[in-house]
Design brief:
2 copies of one chain form a homodimer.
Chain A (H helix, E strand, L loop, with lengths): L2 H9 L15 H23 L4 H8 L3 H8 L7 H10 L4 H10 L3
The structure holds a DNA duplex (30 and 30 nucleotides).
DNA sequence: TGATTTTATGTCCAATATGACATAGACTTC
DNA sequence: GAAGTCTATGTCATATTGGACATAAAATCA
């Protein structure tokens, strides 16, 4: 696992590599987490290339800055649905999303 | 839009082409719906190729037969998260999922 | 046909996700 | 270093989602 991924997961509270190791996660759980992570990273990237602030994106989404921050942080309280809607609102298309998910492979 | 898609959407209560036409949906909303649809179809396909009943899959998911049925029907009460978890539980991998999402393009 | 298995649909309430708010921190610019 | 802008984090009430159950409908097969 890459260092950046590990860091991001830890920040999101996933306790990677510490007591609770990935060994305790089923492959499905790992896949899910990595996909969420990939999407959150894709979201931030997309938002930035579009020169949007979190507030801008929040407005498009009918949401709030704090939630967008959580989305990009892959916070546990953020669903796939919201991440996808975020990406679409930030101008990503199906292909971009598919690529992110694919990229999140283990 | 293909006939099968239209039918599936209608069954799922999305009222395609009737009073509420797709014209009322933003491109983002359309994308979302089509992705959900693509995933639900991929799920049923995957489950069947694995020769699993809805009950089998429900057990793997820690869910119920009725919910699996709703997942495959792209019912409005089913989230992306659940669809993805369903696909993974049915043996699909990230690539399969990415392909489904990509295929759900407009 | 009747029995059995599989899938579909509706409803309920417990669990989870979400927008909103408050506030803190980070970063820039003057 | 103050002011302004952007991002991060915690909390909460409300809204949405999900497992479970009941039951109907379809499909399979003897």
């Amino acid at each position: 696992m890459q260092k950046t991924k590990r860091k991001a997961l830890e920040n999101a509270g996933w306790k990677v590599g510490s007591v609770t190791d990935f060994l305790e996660l089923t492959p499905e759980e790992s896949s899910l987490i990595e996909m969420r992570l990939a999407l959150s990273q894709a979201l931030q990237k997309q938002r930035k290339t579009q020169h949007l602030t979190q507030i801008d994106l929040a407005k498009r989404l009918g949401s709030s800055q704090s939630r967008v921050a959580k989305m990009e942080a892959a916070d546990g309280s953020v669903s796939f649905d919201l991440l996808i809607r975020g990406l679409l609102a930030a101008g990503a298309n199906n292909t971009d999303i598919a690529r992110a998910i694919q990229h999140g492979s283990t």
